[in-house]
Amino acid sequence: MSRYGYRHRYDRYSIFPQVKSKSERMADAASKQQALEKKGQKLSPVVLQGFAIAATFWGKAWCRNVESYHDYSNRLPRGRSYVRSNSVIDLQIERGAVRARVMGSSLYRVSINIKPVAADRWQAICQACTGRIGSMIELLQGRLSNEVMAVMTGQETGLFPRPAEIGFTCSCPDSAGMCKHIAAVMYGIGNRLDTQPEL
Fold it and tell me: What end-to-end distance do the CA atoms of the chain give, in Å?
């Protein structure tokens, strides 16, 4: 709506709905989540504590990796806005696959497929870290040397996927390679790694 109380005359031709405020998005997401849970669906929403999306080493490292995808840099700010509005009402992470539901103007389904780390890259990581990892607990907590963690999270050599190793789809009408709903889920993964780094 315009400040005069009516829609611009071209708005009716757009397939995209009017932009909602953060409070409207949060209310819509909470309402949809409650409705689905009343139907017996078990959801795993992304809920931020404060403004930061990720607080731990692994969560922050994942988000930095996502932000290195320069081809999608114009969509990432909207994704951050959506994840901060608690719009990712369900996030399920499995081996090589992420399934999520994001509340936008409607409830959209996001699917992300991630190729496993290539065998030669995995061997190089193992070789570079041999004898430098004291325990799995230290690794999960990100309490290893900067050198080891740099190997683990290097953009071209580490565990995190490159853009060519990720495929994604969203049920929304946006035809962009990465829409704001997919971007929100990508950030949601970083938040989830805060509490479940083993993922």
Answer: 43
